[in-house]
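Severity: low
Component: inverse-folding endpoint
Summary: output formatting inconsistent between runs
Steps to reproduce: submit the following structure tokens with default settings.
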């Protein structure tokens, strides 16, 4: 640090390294100092050159001292611990040693760059924030409660009678096309429905494209359109299609039935509805306001950097990267708003808030009229789009899809709810499903057998 720069003034050395090269190297080491130091700890022969370069380039002394201490704090216990455990290769701690070393290496690799550090922050936040927990973890208490209800009602599958119009009441793998066709039987529903086309997996790529062209032409539609699996789950496989070329690409190697649907622009909400068979009118159980997150550009950061810098977006950075892959390197101008998702699915990054404020007599009447005319439907969630939330409240909306008995009351993902608060809502939802199913069974409906339900579940898992 004291003498390095003076060497450059000597004629011979001044010809080898220019001032521009030196400045460029200094910037590089300042930006990637943490990565360089951590790598030097694990790559033999690079530690001394790294230290000398840091001094020679006059890098920030305190920043690099901090990096040195962190790297040493990770490396030294590894070195000492490995030596201790390795003193006997027959030691009973060999497996533990290997596991700890791998964990430490994994942590170290996640700290070598700013992007990796932010991705690690996102993963840690997903552990802390229950709304991002894996379904199998989050739903475990709900499964236990469902088993309690099954014992109480003396039937494991009585809830599959909640919607006799839908196979297994929409437990898993139900056809969205068939549900949409069922809605058409409701006299009140047609004006709320979007035009759609069922595309069988048996069609060749050319036949599929020809039918899609005819559908668009006959209904006077324009792009964008929505393409989704006929038996989708939590928004999996839903894609916004911009032209026929993209449609051909998306469907070229698909081996399952699809739906091509008219695209409805505007705001989105979910309405969860139920009606007991002996009652004339049903009720709205909950409403979820869906928001499509937007980031504000600063004229400096790329979209990828904006995602990683955002305290919520970083939790689902991988999903946002996937959906914005073609523009991650773009730099939004100062104060430019960039919407990073246009699909209203929580698992893909939409923000869900409690939408109780959207409840109006007009909305309740419209939903109830649709459902009462759909014979055999009593319990489920509508996904809706409207030009504005004001129009939604007036009962002017379009139905994207209707989900059956296992659909969620998605307002639970609002940050205002605690984990226990979310479980209270979901427990009540399932209690009502069992009660409606039991009432329909008392009227002579037959529930799906446990064996048939297991086969549905297995075939659905195999299709994934």
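Observed output (run 2 of 3):
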């Amino acid at each position: 640090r004291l003498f390095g720069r003076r060497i450059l003034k000597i004629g011979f050395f001044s010809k080898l390294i220019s001032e521009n090269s030196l400045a460029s190297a200094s910037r590089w080491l300042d930006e990637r100092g943490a990565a360089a130091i951590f790598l030097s700890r694990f790559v033999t022969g690079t530690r001394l050159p790294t230290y000398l370069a840091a001094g020679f380039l006059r890098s920030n002394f305190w920043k690099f001292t901090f990096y040195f201490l962190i790297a040493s704090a990770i490396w030294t216990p590894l070195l000492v611990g490995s030596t201790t455990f390795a003193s006997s290769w027959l030691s009973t701690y060999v497996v533990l040693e290997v596991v700890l070393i791998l964990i430490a290496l994994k942590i170290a690799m996640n700290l070598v760059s700013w992007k990796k550090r932010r991705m690690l922050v996102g993963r840690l936040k997903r552990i802390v924030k229950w709304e991002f927990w894996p379904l199998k973890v989050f739903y475990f208490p709900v499964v236990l409660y469902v088993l309690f209800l099954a014992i109480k009602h003396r039937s494991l599958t009585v809830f599959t009678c909640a919607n006799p119009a839908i196979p297994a009441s929409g437990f898993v793998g139900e056809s969205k096309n068939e549900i949409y066709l069922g809605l058409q039987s409701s006299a009140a529903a047609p004006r709320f429905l979007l035009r759609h086309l069922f595309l069988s997996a048996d069609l060749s790529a050319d036949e599929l494209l020809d039918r899609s062209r005819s559908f668009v032409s006959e209904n006077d539609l324009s792009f964008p359109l929505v393409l989704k699996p006929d038996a989708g789950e939590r928004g999996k496989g839903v894609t916004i299609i911009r032209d026929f070329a993209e449609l051909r690409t998306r469907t070229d190697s698909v081996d399952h039935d699809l739906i091509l649907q008219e695209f409805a622009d505007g705001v989105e909400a979910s309405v969860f509805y139920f009606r007991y068979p002996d009652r004339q009118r049903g009720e709205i159980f909950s409403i979820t306001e869906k928001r499509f997150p937007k980031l504000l550009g600063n004229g400096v950061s790329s979209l990828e950097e904006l995602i990683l810098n955002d305290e919520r977006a970083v939790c689902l950075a991988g999903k946002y990267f996937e959906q914005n892959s073609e523009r991650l390197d773009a730099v939004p101008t100062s104060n430019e708003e960039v919407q990073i998702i246009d699909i209203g699915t929580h698992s893909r990054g939409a923000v869900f808030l409690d939408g109780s404020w959207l409840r109006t007599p007009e909305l309740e009447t419209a939903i109830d009229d649709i459902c009462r005319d759909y014979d055999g439907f009593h319990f489920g969630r509508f996904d809706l789009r409207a030009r504005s939330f004001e129009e939604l409240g007036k009962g002017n909306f379009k139905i994207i899809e209707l989900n059956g008995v296992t659909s969620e009351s998605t307002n639970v993902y609002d940050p205002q709810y605690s984990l226990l608060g979310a479980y209270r809502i979901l427990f009540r939802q399932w209690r009502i499903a069992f009660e409606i199913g039991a009432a329909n069974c008392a009227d002579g409906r037959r529930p799906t057998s446990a064996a048939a339900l297991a086969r549905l579940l297995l075939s659905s898992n195999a299709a994934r």
